[in-house]
Design a protein that fits this description.
The complex is a heterodimer of chains A (531) and B (380).
Chain A: H1 24-30, H2 34-62, H3 73-108, H4 116-124, H5 126-135, H6 154-157, H7 160-189, H8 202-233, H9 247-281, H10 288-301, H11 317-345, H12 354-377, H13 379-385, H14 389-419, H15 425-452, H16 466-495
Chain B: H1 6-11, H2 13-22, H3 40-73, H4 89-117, E1 125-132, E2 135-142, E3 149-152, H5 158-161, E4 179-182, E5 186-193, E6 198-202, E7 207-211, E8 217-222, E9 227-233, E10 246-251, H6 253-270, H7 280-294, H8 296-299, H9 317-320, H10 323-332, H11 348-359, H12 372-378
The chains are: A mainly alpha (531), B alpha+beta (380).
Chain lengths: 531, 380
């Protein structure tokens, strides 16, 4: 091994000769480098975000007016199903895995992820899965049309698009599981000397916890969709009463996965927000230990609440009461996090660059999603809201204004590190405000639609729901167009812009800011000592 | 009420918003809250929701008051450094314990309401609601009206849905046969389904109960005022999930008894004489009506279907082939597909008629016919 002089960031001098590494397309196909793989995840997730977004726009276009104008009802159901599957499994989860790949080694002072080749495979499984899902629209019978929740017996009736979706879900799940194995091993084993677990940036903690959640529940989803596959083709009757089974069994299995899944989606976002708020308040995160315990509590509690998605299925009242009480408890550690972020800002020295705008927007809007979640948790009230647009509003507040906004915050925060340039701050702020305003236009009115009784997953509606649907659709097109601005900002930032220093943000803490911007292809080849 | 053009509609946006803030009618545009409750429980749910809104509102104002105060007051200004505090155990304990107490306070009245909601004992009338793809079937199984059964399907014409005719006032919320119940009596609704999961949802009663095939669930309500109340299926059940509404007429006790008598008479009249021998024309006429109500949604009025999910019947091997295979698929359905077992939903005469119709409609000219007795014999 080369023992020549090391540069300040631990990069071994004289190791720049990459003649043995392929260039061009093969570089990306065979890379085991966490930065390359992170970049691929991020581009893939953005592409999927645009695809899923087009599906959303198609849905909202159909819902602009009562009557059927654009889509046959079956096609509409395919759109809603694929929109959900693509956004959850193709956009938001890979985006955060992209952040994990890029940032975890940098933040813990490791030269790369523990398992480089498995990392490569985890990514390259995604494009075939995405192809399976998107092309399923064009096979006879069309794509799966049972909602992303895939309830039987409806799924048993569907055509081959359902089988394609099942296989896609399997592949996406395996990718996530492998990624999580990598993340856990990396965090537990490759931290720089002196970096104890309680000295790790919170983003590392949130990914450590999320990775355990993924390993615990993705196999459960795999089980549920496999049982669906065998019910469809191999004569089993897990979900058919005629054969001694029960359709509701699927719901229990699915939601046992499904509830931790929503925390898998949001918890890495919590980590990003903690770092961004602390940086732009120029103040250490308030209550670091409590923040760690709160995330751990949320993760553990998430296993105990699944049937709040099923209050109207006919379970005994004791079960309804239990799940209601358990669900309410998750509000406590979540509230602690909101209060701690606010306390971090309190008497800090605040500046409002784009990452901070998205972080504050996150806290504001995610909390609103939390309130509607609390209302939904109340089983007696949920009877009115279940399967209406109130639920749609709730989960879009938490997943879009929550997870997506935190991903934007992270992207703007770390773009200088990734590219070596500052992004255009004015445009970034414009992207925030457009997203914020249009997001609320889409989804705030959907609370009212749900209260008024409009069900979900319908392509056409009674006349009294027209006006709010129109507002929602206009907001959707505005929001969609605004995301093209983000694409423009990122591309121009990659191509040029004001040179970014190693630490562009005055209040930033963490090892990632000790390496140059852009971060060299290999970093921390000699691990730093953390005091 | 017809829909105005979009231009005029948009200009009513502001006025409508103001009106909606004041209005509490059950189905207004820009409606901000639940529909007007028609049962005591629905009123309790309304009040519970308002209580939660107030509590969330107070927390919202508190938390974001502090946060936006901080955004304003603690901006970076020259010479004002950030504080450095980053923990405070007392405060942390307080803001863990206090929210827990608030939650416990919230959950007590909700628990009481839920217990009341789930009590469906001592019902005056019991009605079974069966979800089909894509309509409801009602069976009055106990209490006054016992024995009445009928289907209830969307009655909004296709023309309105496809934009060829102006939409009626109750667009998508109207059915051919309403569910009729007496006011002030406890009605227990048993839900089940014939094919996939549906859900029986009437917002004004705060009633929603999933209809799971192969299982019976139940819910109940006691309407405390007369009127017509509309709801929809609330569980995705396939392509016409949005097109299988529920309409409940709550009427006085006298009107209800009159309705019951009328239904019983009607049912006796249309009950087909099992010994009657039908002519080809009678079968085709009856069959066309059965086809329109039960088969056209998937196989289309033209018989051309929507392949591959819904095969064409016009020119199909089954509809022009041996009678017993044709009868078998209509009676028993095709497992693993959306083709339901219509033997469960239709009478012998109806099945004989629709099979005869299909074999002699459009381009099909098989020329044979089926008597109800043949259907009865084929039922296992």
């Amino acid at each position: 091994m080369n023992t020549a002089a090391t540069t300040a960031n631990g990069h071994i001098a004289g190791h720049d000769d990459h003649a043995h590494h392929p260039k061009g397309l093969m570089r990306w196909v065979t890379t085991t480098n966490h930065k390359d793989i992170g970049t691929m995840y991020l581009w893939f997730s953005f592409a999927m975000f645009l695809v899923g977004g087009c599906m959303a726009l198609t849905i909202r276009a159909e819902l602009f007016q009562p009557g059927l104008q654009i889509l046959e009802p079956e096609r509409f159901n395919q759109m809603t199903t694929l929109h959900g599957l693509i956004m959850v499994f193709g956009a938001i989860m890979p985006a955060f895995v992209g952040f994990a790949n890029w940032m975890l080694p940098l933040q813990i002072g490791a030269s790369d992820m523990a398992f480089g080749r498995m990392n490569n495979m985890s990514f390259w499984m995604l494009p075939p899965a995405a192809l399976l899902l998107t092309t399923s629209l064009f096979v006879p019978g069309g794509a799966a049309a049972a909602g992303w929740t895939l309830y039987p017996p409806l799924t048993i009736q569907q055509g081959m698009g359902m089988d394609m979706a099942i296989f896609a879900v399997h592949i996406l799940g395996i990718s996530s599981i492998m990624g999580s194995i990598n993340i856990i091993t990396t965090i537990l084993n490759l931290r720089a000397p002196g970096m104890t677990l309680m000295k790790m940036p919170l983003f590392c903690w949130t990914w450590l916890i999320t990775a355990y959640l993924i390993i615990a529940v993705m196999p459960v989803l795999a089980g549920a969709v496999t049982m669906t596959l065998t019910d469809r083709h191999f004569g089993t009757s897990f979900f058919s009463a005629a054969g001694g089974g029960d359709p509701v069994l699927f719901q229990h299995i699915f939601w046992f996965f499904g509830h931790p899944e929503v925390y898998i989606v949001i918890i890495p976002g919590f980590g990003v927000i903690s770092q961004v708020i602390s940086t732009f308040s120029r103040k250490p995160l308030f209550g670091y230990a409590s923040m760690v315990y709160a995330v751990a509590a949320i993760a553990i509690l998430s296993f105990t609440v699944w049937a709040h998605h099923m209050y109207t299925v006919g379970m005994p009242i004791t079960a309804q009461l239990y799940f209601m009480y358990a669900t309410m408890f998750i509000a406590v550690p979540t509230g602690v996090k909101i209060f701690n972020w606010t306390a971090t800002m309190w008497r800090g020295s605040l500046s409002f660059e784009t990452p901070m705008l998205f972080a504050i927007g996150f806290i504001f809007l995610f909390t609103m999603g939390g309130f509607s979640g609390l209302v939904l948790a109340m089983a007696a009230v949920d009877v009115q809201m279940q399967d209406t647009y109130y639920v749609v509003a709730h989960f879009h507040y938490t997943m879009v204004a929550g997870a997506l906004f935190s991903a934007f915050a992270g992207a703007y925060y770390w773009l200088p590190k990734w590219t070596g340039h500052m992004y255009n701050e004015k445009l970034g702020q414009l992207h925030f405000w457009l997203s914020f305003i249009f997001f609320n236009m889409i989804f705030f009115v959907q609370h009212f639609l749900g209260l008024a009784g409009m069900p979900r997953r319908i392509p056409d509606y009674a006349l009294q729901f027209t006006e709010f649907n129109q507002i929602s659709t206009i907001g959707a097109f505005g929001f969609g167009l605004s995301q093209l601005l983000f694409l423009y900002i990122v591309i121009t930032c990659i191509k040029g812009g004001e040179k970014a220093p190693a630490k562009p943000w005055e209040g930033a803490e963490g090892l990632e800011w000790d390496v140059p911007s852009p971060a060299p292809h290999h970093t921390w080849e000699v691990q730093p000592i953390v005091k | 009420m017809t829909r105005e053009t979009r231009g005029v509609g948009m200009s009513r946006l502001i006025g409508g918003l103001v009106l909606a803030l004041l209005a509490t009618t059950s189905q207004a545009a820009y409606q901000l809250n639940f529909q007007e409750p028609a049962t005591k429980l629905a009123r309790e749910v309304y009040d519970l929701h308002m209580m939660m809104m107030y509590i969330c509102g107070v927390i919202f104002v508190g938390v974001f008051g502090v946060m936006f105060y901080s955004v304003f007051k603690h901006r970076k200004t020259p010479g004002q450094a950030a504080a450095t505090f980053h923990e405070n155990t007392t405060v942390e304990i307080l803001w863990t314990v206090i929210p827990t107490i608030i939650l416990l306070v919230m959950v007590w009245p909700v628990t009481k309401a839920l217990i009341a909601m789930r009590d469906s004992t001592s019902a005056d009338i019991t009605i079974k609601a069966t979800g089909y793809q894509w309509k409801w079937g009602y069976d009055y199984v106990k209490g006054e009206g016992e024995g009445i059964k009928f289907k209830s399907a969307l009655s909004t014409p296709r023309d309105q849905i496809e934009g060829r005719a102006p939409k009626g006032e109750h667009y998508l919320l109207e059915v051919d046969n309403h569910l009729v119940v007496p006011v002030g009596k406890k009605v227990r609704i048993l839900t089940t389904a014939e094919d996939v999961i549906h859900s029986w949802f009437v917002p004004a009663f705060a009633v929603k109960q999933d209809a799971v095939p192969g299982f019976i669930r139940d819910t109940s309500f006691r309407a405390d005022r007369e009127g017509t109340f509309r709801g929809q299926c609330a569980e995705l059940c396939g392509k016409d999930h949005g097109f299988m509404p529920i309409v409940v007429d709550v009427v006085s006790a006298e009107k209800y008894s009159a309705w019951v008598a009328e239904q019983k008479t009607k049912m006796a009249a249309v009950a087909d004489d099992p010994s009657k021998v039908w002519t080809l024309d009678e079968l085709k006429t009856r069959g066309e009506s059965v086809y329109t109500q039960n088969c056209a949604a998937c196989h289309q009025p033209t018989g051309k279907g929507l392949p591959p999910a819904f095969p064409a019947l016009d020119g199909s091997k089954i509809a022009t082939g041996p009678k017993d295979a044709h009868l078998d698929i209509v009676l028993n359905g095709k497992p693993g597909t959306a083709m339901a077992a219509f033997g469960k939903q239709l009478s012998d005469a109806e099945i004989a008629a629709v099979v005869t119709y299909e074999r002699n409609a459009w381009g099909n000219k098989v020329g044979d016919m089926m008597q109800p007795a043949e259907v009865k014999a084929a039922r296992k």
